[in-house]
Amino acid sequence: MDSYLSAARDLVVEGMRESRIALSPDLEFHLAATLARYMHRPLRPDQLTLRLMDAARGRAPRSESRRIGDDCLISCAFFEARLTRHGGTIVHYAGLGQTAYAVAGMPDVAQGFPEMLDVLQASRPAPPRRLI
Asked: Which stretches of 1-132 are DSSP H helices?
C-alpha cells in the first residue's frame, strides 16, 4: 500500500500545483489515501443515489457513506461520461458525495469536496494529441 500511497500523493501534489489549490494537510492525506485505495480496489459508481438513500436510512454501516463519498469523488474526477450517460450531472454527483461525507460524520471532507475534485481534475494527464 505504501507504493500506492506514494504514487497517489505525487498525483495530489501535482494536482495542487496545476490547480493552484492548497489543500489542508488533512484533505491532502484523505485525497491521497482515497486515490491509493482505488488504485487496487474496484470502483462502484453505479446506483450512488440509491446507495446513499439506504445508508441515510440506517440500512448500511456508516463506512458505506464514506465509500459512497469516495466513489463520487473519484467518479466525478475521472469517469464523468459514465456518471452522466443516463442524464445525471456532475453537480448532482458532487452534491451527493458531499452529502455522503456529511452522513459519514466527515464535515471537513464534505466541505472540501469541491477543492479536492478540482485538484484531481488538474492531476489528470492531458489526452493524447492526434497527429493527423
From this structure: 2-19, 25-38, 48-56, 62-78, 80-84, 90-103, 107-123
Cα dist from 26 to 49, 60, 79, 109, 120, whole Å: 26, 26, 25, 9, 16
The closest alpha carbon to 109, from 123, 94, 90, belongs to 94
Tell me the pLDDT tens digit for each residue of 87-132: 778 898 899 899 999 988 999 999 999 999 999 999 876 665 666 6
Residues 43, 81: Cα–Cα separation, whole Å: 15
Q: Using alpha carbons, select from 103, 104, 45, 52 the residue that is nearest to residue 74.
A: 45
